[in-house]
User: Fold these one by one.
Assistant:
Number 1:
Amino acid sequence: MSMNTTSPKPYSNPYISGIFLGLTLLASFLILGAGLGASSGLARIGASIEGFVFPAHTAASEYFGKWGTSPMNYYLVHMLVGAFLGGLFSALYHARISIQVEKGKKSTVKQRLIMAGVGGVLVGFSSRLAAGCTSGQALTGGALLLTGSLVFLCCVFAGGYAAAYWVRRQWDD
Amino acid sequence: MIKTYYGLAELHSPGALFLALMIGFFFGLSLERAGFGSSKRLSGIFYFRDMAVLKVMFTALLTAMFGLNMIIGLGLIDPATQIYFMPTYYGAYIVAGLIFGVGFVMSGWCPGTSAVGIASGKVDALVFFGGAIVGSILFNELFPVIKPLYTWGQSDQNSFGQPGLAFIYTSLGVSKAGFIKGFTLMAIGCFWGAEYIEGKRPEATGLKPFITPFFKSFSLCFLLIALSLSVFSDSKTGVLSATRVTTDSETHLLAQVEEAEDHMAPEVVAERLFQKDPSLRLVDVRPASEFLDFHIRGAENVTLPELPAYMSSIDPSQTVVLYSNGMTHPVQARDSLSRLGYGHVYIMTDGLTGFIEECLKPPSLRPYPLTPASMEQIRSWRNYFLASTKTPEQVGAESPSIPVGVPGLVDSVWLESRIGRDGLRIIDTREQSDYNRNHIPGSVALNVESVRSALEGVPSILLTGEILVSHVSLAGIAPSDRIVIIYGGDRVRDATLMAMALERIGHRDYAILNVGYEAWLADKRPMTTAFPDMSRTAYPLPSARDHFTVSADELLTQLKKAHVTVLDTRPREYYLGEKSDEARAGHIPGAINRSYKEDLIPTGLKSVQELEAAYHQLIPNKKETVIVHCRTGHQASQTFFVLKHLLGYQQVYWYDGGWTEWAARNDLPVQSGG
């Protein structure tokens, strides 16, 4: 169901979008001295939730414990909030907001949401292991020509293509 | 020069947080604009349906890389200090990348795009987001088990002085400009391939057929930018390929030798040092002991085997000048470095001898007349170079019989001449295994871990007087003994923590050897594997508590007073709160910072003159009350010793509980940032 009566506009030219994203990354390098990132903000939300439920346990844990008692007070959390707002602005502007579960016609809502949730757990876990995700490692580190980031990028595609066949049904029409 | 929030260590400041929000806004906007608010579109790349992810990702990567390299090439930003680089852990990143890829294709989302997906109303994005939070918490819970994996396979590259920071072109052994060209060509090849794949199935994608005029001009444009980046020379863009061995460099070297271009006259070196020219690095390649006896002010001590690592750690645009006593070693070192790809390496003509002869010899002793201008120049050089260090005439003359002011420092010659005398006890604070391998004859092993423990719930506190006297009694130490404390490497703090233990039991007749044990060995001074022959003593209990240790509550009452300085001796990043191993990050409000490391050279403490000058800047008044602390009291004991016993500050106190205790007590105030 569409929230807007006007039909959604088609996506912009990907190369122009890429240049726009690249300039945003460049601005981040020159202003903040660090690139873009998303998974760190997400993990800090996780640390806050765990800290709210089990304060002593979280403060004593080796990984989240380092972030102190207010993990949300961090620039990448602000960046993630900004990304949500920027996405909201653009989606409104291009009339692309609709509440839905994206899937192929033959797939059920339940199947698709299980896929999304399990994939999320894998992504959340592996982003911590690599200290970054597609934004913080692959894109940012790639632009800095860091060996580790480009190795990570290659492995993301290797893992993705290897598993693609087994999860293709969710997109079948 | 551009200063970033990272470079200023102010990423936590409100300004940085606001700008991060703004940058995030444009980040989200770009992603949504590209159509990444749709999991169907994102996952398209894995089924060759829709290659937008590849196009947007590589275009963004290249755009940012081009821009950043131009700005670095123009000298507008110093990447080494202003930009945060992630180190490379091959093992961790390969495992993480493979898992991430599986999660990405299953869900159709990644963390950044899911935020945009949620903003677009996608329920699957919200479920993914929740899953990713669960995954992060899972990582935290499993961290104790998977910790070895987290740092598995660190690269052995060391860039900008950061171990494990690896650049792809160095890993591949190619030049940076060459890599950028190849990488751009590959990306454009991928774009053409992507357009071709999509063009074959227009009915599936609804996208325009491939190879539009826009696409052709876009490809050409990126190619030209990649080629144009070569105008910035490698040295400007911060690259030196250490693996390059070419006949070109050898020919160049021989040509330089022929022209004597590889030499720098001592007068030139002296003037550049005197003017504090930051582009010059003077390297003394002699052994540490000779360096410590006398060196040119401003020189760094790097021995020959350490040179390649040193070269890779410095800014490649700097000029390196090598010297020794004579010319043989620097010439060999220079040739070897040149073969490893390091230009900009010079030898100081006639070495240290030449420097003293040409620059430091008083005009009155010279056989030829001098112009008033050059006499004035020599006078200012003498003032500068002989001010902070012993003059060559003094070397040797003062060595054998330094009057020992205790507590204080003694040198190797003094100690060697007194080994075996009655009433002299040597405490070796190095690791047990190092002591067992060999040690100074008559010395007894007493490690710092035997003088500290958890006390009343706070970890790592200096033991009470009662326990300490039993330890020194077992080690055969009597109240009338003069004690010399030995440390390994630059771990002066081990000796000074032992000194704190001695002071606590009221034993003030001690000194610390002024160089690490390795320097003693390098000088071929006496050593043995035999354990000392001694019997236990009965050291009396101290009569009162010590007068230098303060508690957290005592410190709190002093915080706002005038003429009280709290000196935090932890490394700066801990003081600023960027790093923390404790309950809370930051520092005690109002505390100033000087890391204990700043007082060190590789073999021990800096000269008293250098320390005096540095602390005079920080705390000009020696009657001021100074409370030193670090994390556990260990590092701060070194600063305590420096201030109280070497520099004569009168009111120095030691907060042993340190940041460990302060951070854990939520009732105590904390400040972070600069």
Number 2:
Amino acid sequence: MSRAILVTGGGGVGKTTISAALGVAAARAGLRTLVVTVDPAKRLADALGVEDLGSEPTPNDSVENLWAAMLDATSSWNSIARRHAPPDVAERLVENEFFKAISRQFPASQAYAAAEEMANFLDAKVWDLVIVDTPPSSGGIEFFSAPKDMRDFVGGRLLRWLTGARLPGRKLVFNVTGKPALRIAGSVLGTDLLERVVDFLMDLRTTYDGLAGRAKQIERHFRAATLIVVTTSDPAPLREAGRFFRELPKAAPSPSVVVFNRVLPTDWGQAGNLRASKATASSDNLGRVETRTLERNLERWAADAAHQAEVRDSFARGYEVPLATIAWQTTAPTDLDSLAALVDTAGGFDLTGLL
Amino acid sequence: MPADPKLVIVSGKGGVGKSAVAAAKAMAAARAGQRVLALSATTSPGLGHHLAAPELSFKPTEIEPGLHAASINLGEALQEYLRLQLNVPTPRFGIVARAFEVLANTAPGVREIITIGKAINDSESGTWDVVIVDAPPTGQIASFIRAPRTVGELAPTGRVLQQSAWMESVLAAATTEVVLVTLLEELPITETDEAIAELAGLGLTRTPIVLANRVLEPLPIGSDVLAGMSDGPHRAAAELHSALQEGQTEWADRIEIDGTLPYLFGILTPTEVAARLLDELR
């Protein structure tokens, strides 16, 4: 049985690093593990052993049982078209200007592509654990509504706006000039443009049955998955994390844990005065200016630490969810040992228990 | 001296503080006596929070003397675009709006042109001395700014084409400025670099301005002194500071930076963040 762990959260909070860290820890614990990521930093991609976008799962050279795959929305979309549309239509679709635009720009599309790949990897039953680092464009709760948004999108809702309640059959060549209402729209936008769009939407609609069925399966995978929300103490990612508790879509599981990243030690606020402990100052050979500098530096970081602690307390109280803390790293961990250490040294919650 | 900007587009990777910078820039311009409109062109509510007005609406609300703020809502922006820019007469409105909604979900650039078109129209309206836009993140900024050209290439007819050409000329003018906010870390720097390369092909008169946010001052403590200290919070905090600061210096060398904003210690609310950045910008 393959299980999934979904790692979500706002931009810049360290989702990819934590996904990789969980992957290394799981593989070292003997689970056949695949990490699916979207846009890793160069050094992290190197550590995971993935090089090219859209690559198939690649086994890691140094860690047994660890695979990684890097998603590319465009190529995932092409395979979605090929999977769900008749062959001739699929070929027309992947070359279509609007299809290309959607695969890059439609907000739900990157998320849907990631979700469908996740489902494919789970169904392959090759891995014990599939860890998904959600796409940056929809790292939040939008990830979970992507299957529904896609279903609505290809379902002909847009097409019906243009053509009225009855959808034209594919055999009909759609003609704007035959419809008075569309002639009006055409006079503003250009009839040629409208006809191209309607043509495209009719092609896209052929994917509906396949895609709608797949979307339901994806939602089942979602509900069975373990959800980890990552945040820092900054207001923007915190707001995003809070949405998982206030507005969680039906298709999503409740978060098992919220991971606070870049956490400062809580005891920095209680540190004594450096000058007061004369012995230390003199044995460390610190001058007066240096002592003052070090005290002032600690004061400022301790204020940050205190603020962080306050933020975590109020989050835990407000949403009644367990929290894990990961200490602020001086350099981004990119080698396998320091990645695994992130999971082992997390405070407040045993992350290995989720693997 | 280049002309004062009339349209300022602020972007940055998620999490780098772009909304805070946009808010601070808007307040700075208003306090310098300009009539300012701060516009949120993203789905995130950041700008409003930094301006202590969490519920921004499409209609500008006054934040403080000289400063108004609004949030661009696609539906309302479309109505305005059709009425004011395309002069679509009322009886035809419904069907054209519908067709546009389909296009906004299908064709490249249409969603963006409605949003950026609103900002451009406001900046050219004469009501404001400057319009400051909290724009989509760096990954999408080039397609946002390229939208008029993209839509032009879809080969629409008369008025849409005309309006696109006009928007392109406003964006290309010396009075339009793009500000990219970044952190001195790998991913934000890489994304900023990519955005600059993509923007370079769009015919902007001004090269984008890069602002590095949350920059740490070097700690004037020698590494030999640090190494000789006993363990404890003082040493740990100094080591964290120095390591982060050195990491920042390393990344700062990879890109040309026009200005820096400091790391703010122990700051509590979005409003306070914007107020402190405002002091730095002035």
